[in-house]
Design a protein that fits this description.
Length: 392
RNA sequence: GUGGCCAUAGCUCAAUGGUAGAGCUCCAGAUUGUGGUUCUGGCUGUUGCGGGUUCGAGUCCCGUUGGCCACC
């Protein structure tokens, strides 16, 4: 259940209580696509105070597959993470990774990107997989239209996505009951999994068309979900268009349910989105950029591979309390990255996740203190990307 | 000492006698429901040195220096 505790303008702070814990919002969810936040152990995630992580239905379905996941009693047990998990439905990946997609009313047939095997995912299958994964929050299967996208295509796609959302809702209810019976045969280890009800979030699509976004939101609210995501953003569109998609969706979502902007975003974007009433985020930027040597700081991103850091004895960010900054210099981390030492990627990943999670903590505190607007303005003013001032 | 082979970008190597290139390194950039991948740019040359032949030499000839191999 979601308890909205504080508002500051349109920004909100709340508590989302789910099976494996409580999530304070606004919240950032580190992405753990294949049952692992790349390079980071569950213990480290706890130390970073990550309250929820994201797993991916598509990837885990393709590999290791449902039999293995079931054998280990679900994703929590498999990866040894006992905190909340949200699973993406795989909709986005089918469109970004898989080949030979064939979309029908029933579902999507595709060739997976690992070994090319043909597979089929329908709304019911997506929910079955997520039930087997045992995630706290499941996402509906959606079609994520590309950008740019014609109105006709977006409208037709949205109708299908809406029908799929409805089917996912029904499938979830069935699984919640049948699951309990099934799970009682599992080991005691899994008892907890059998006793909770998986939440389901709908996904607002509609590309860049405000009228479609509104239709999408209203249709989802009619069906009734535990939370509402905004999808079809961060697919290459300009930032203004992304913000417009958010602004044309949020007003039609209920106040008392969490709102999740999928796949976003840069630190300034997160604050802009919080200011527009978003509660949850996931984004690969902190982890992916880390693996390419880019670290987030309050002044913007720095590419630690750059020669200027070779002799730098400062931490990535002064006063940062993350595991990387407590012990290591920029010069050393630069060396590790240049030498392709795994530790370098890990340290920057830890730092970047810390940066994102700390940003959320500060945002929550600011909302509590009714100072969010000035906090946001101050942060954004301070934040500059050396790489690309316009985009990061 | 004699004979042979070799010498081109920081490295490993290309280049019919006709505008000296590639990969790696290095220097930068991209990355938004994952992409340790990948992609995109950029810098670098007295072609070991000195002569000669030629309209034109990294390429052919002579000398020389250095390296490697074989044989005394």
């Amino acid at each position: 259940m979601f308890e909205l505790r504080k508002r500051d303008g349109s920004a909100r702070s709340g508590l989302l209580s789910i099976a494996h814990g409580v999530i304070e919002t606004p919240a950032f969810m580190p992405v753990g696509t294949q049952g692992s936040v790349k390079g980071v152990s569950p213990a480290e995630l706890r130390e970073l105070e990550a309250s929820v992580i994201l797993g991916n239905t598509y990837h885990l379905f393709v590999r290791p597959g449902l039999d293995v996941i079931r054998h280990f009693g679900g994703l929590h047990s498999f990866m040894s993470w006992n905190g909340p998990i949200l699973t993406d439905s795989g909709g986005y990946q089918i469109f970004s990774l898989a080949k030979l997609r064939k979309i029908t009313e029933e579902g999507v047939q595709f060739q997976n990107h690992v070994d090319g095997t043909l597979a089929f995912i329908s709304p019911e299958v997506a929910m079955e997989i997520q039930a087997a994964l045992g995630s706290d929050i499941a996402m509906v299967l959606d079609e994520c239209p590309p950008w740019p996208c014609q109105f006709e295509y977006a409208a037709r796609s949205l109708e299908l996505t809406t029908r799929w959302a409805s089917r996912c809702r029904e499938a979830n209810i069935e699984h919640s009951t049948s699951n309990t019976e099934h799970r009682t045969r599992e080991a005691a280890l899994n008892f907890q999994l059998s006793t909770f009800k998986q939440l389901v979030f709908g996904i607002v699509q509609g590309a860049s068309f405000p009228e479609l976004r509104r239709q999408a939101a209203e249709a989802l609210v009619d069906i009734g979900f535990d939370g509402y995501a905004i999808g079809g953003v961060s697919v290459g569109e300009p930032e203004e268009e992304m913000m417009r998609a958010i602004e044309s969706s949020v007003p039609f979502l209920p106040e008392d349910k969490p709102r999740y902007a999928m796949g976003l975003g840069t630190p300034p974007q997160l604050l802009e989105l919080i200011a527009r009433g978003i509660d949850m985020f996931d984004c690969v930027l902190p982890t992916r950029l880390a693996r390419n040597g880019t670290a987030f700081t309050s002044l913007g991103t720095v590419n630690l591979k750059n020669a200027e850091f070779a002799l730098d004895k400062n931490p990535i960010e002064t006063d940062c309390t993350c595991p990387a900054c407590r012990e290591f210099t920029r010069g050393y981390i630069r060396h590790l990255v240049k030498a392709e030492e795994i530790l370098g990627l890990r340290l920057i990943t830890l730092h970047n996740l810390h940066f994102y999670l700390e940003l959320m903590r500060r945002a929550r505190a600011a909302i509590q203190n009714d100072t969010f607007a000035s906090f946001r303005a101050g942060f954004v003013r301070n934040y500059r990307s050396r790489a690309a001032p316009e985009t990061l």
